[in-house]
Design brief:
Radius of gyration: 34 Å
Shape: elongated
Structural class: alpha+beta
Largest sheet: 4 strands, antiparallel
Number of strands: 8
Length: about 280
Amino acid sequence: MVEWFSSFWAKPNASDNTNQLIQKRKDQIQSLKEGFPRAFEVRPDVEYHVAVNVGAAMISLNIFLPQDFPQCKPTVNVSPRLSHPWVNQNMSITGCHDLNQFSVHTSLGRVIQTIVNEFQRNPPLLLDHAYPMPSDAIPPSYGATGAVGGAPVRDSGNVVNSPGNSISSRLRLSEWSTAELQEFLDNEDKINQKIVELDEYKGFQATKSGLCEGNEALARYNLSLEPSIQQEKRNLREKVFYVFSASAHTSCVSESECHLATWHTPMFMKLCSVMSSFC
């Protein structure tokens, strides 16, 4: 009875608590990946990016998981720069109640979905240029106000968020004469120059550069792991060699024991005793 009470009041093992926290961290990350299958893993178990289509622009949610996560709440930053009641001057999400009250039992995927829903209900005011996201780049659940499949969205009978209308309005093609349009159409260099000057093109180029830098950083990180991987392979070979050596030694010992066992059976010993009496 005393032992039962002692085991009941015993303090939990520190290693068990650490393993539980590690598992809960993995579960939280899994909830994020389930809610946003296209979430980009910048650093495993530390940093993730979620792309959100809000209207005709793309907003990136940058999620940082501290070392004590999920005991401590994550940090969620947004880019490009924008104005929204939930976002402070440092472009960090501070107005989300679920994020501020984050605990071990909170679902990270649901918190990020709450932020996405808020941005879609109340679109933020973009302070920097943001570029449209192709409809096939994200699942339909990521954005509800933009065009899906390239089709424009109608609001009160008016066509909005149409990429063609946006580009036409930026170039003011309606103000051009027929001769100017024909000259523009015949001159490929002018067309390319106008495309290069578009904010959408600049945004795509900036994203391309960011992805290239991210790929390069990931490649450097993978190369940095090569020495440790090679060392682990050498350790594994040594352990396999030790296992095979131990197995061969065990087989020899077992064979020797079987041989000795046959010489020390009662019947064999009695036979040896009878033969020795004749000698």
